Amino acid sequence: MGDKTKKRNGEKLLRKQVYDFLVEYLGSQNVEDCCGQYEFGCDLIFYQNDPFGIKRRYGIQLKDTDLNGTEINEVLGQLCIAFGHRFATEDRLLDGVYIITSGTITRGAFEKIKEANIGFRNVWVLDKNLLSPALVNKTNVNKFQQGINKEI
């Protein structure tokens, strides 16, 4: 199996794990799998009401690799596309984007995201160290929320 096929299969598995977790946590009506030709920078989108009852839209960009200085350039391009696209039936922009990788994020890549975040709204990063407990132990939702609330 070639590296591209392994990467694609790994990303597909990660997408299913995150999708299943979000469906369990938020309900199926609040999660969309939009990976593919018309993903516009996001593999998944989920909706959640904020404390004031306003429906918020969040995109998720999934990667099955360690994110380093080189890999992160692709992600930053996808963030530009995601934040500029109007999603779903409500024709609304995203309120934030999560970058989730099954690998790790190097300090250099993290700094690039942080610098780019000046022009973006709400970007959060989860690597395998923050994500795994949520997917392995689905009853540990608080640990997952602590990770997703770690804003850059």
Q: What amount of the residues lies in strands?
A: 15-25%
Q: Based on CA inertia axes, which overall geometry fits?
A: globular
Our Rg estimate from Cα atoms comes to 15 Å
Write down the CATH class.
Alpha Beta
CATH fold node name: Trna Endonuclease, Chain: A, domain 1
Order of helices and strands: HEEEHEHEHH
Core attributes:
152 residues; alpha/beta; Trna Endonuclease, Chain: A, domain 1; 5-stranded mixed β-sheet; 5 helices
In short:
The protein has 152 residues and is of the alpha/beta class.
Write the layout of secondary structure elements.
Elements: H1 3-26, E1 31-33, E2 44-49, E3 55-63, H2 71-84, E4 96-101, H3 107-116, E5 123-126, H4 128-136, H5 141-148
Parallel strand pairs: 3-4, 4-5
Antiparallel strand pairs: 1-2, 2-3
Word description of this protein:
The chain has helices spanning 3-26, 71-84, 107-116, 128-136, 141-148; strands at 31-33, 44-49, 55-63, 96-101, 123-126. The protein is α/β, with parallel strands linked by helices and 152 residues long. It has one domain: Trna Endonuclease, Chain: A, domain 1 (3-Layer(aba) Sandwich), CATH 3.40.1350. The protein is globular, with a radius of gyration of 15 Å.
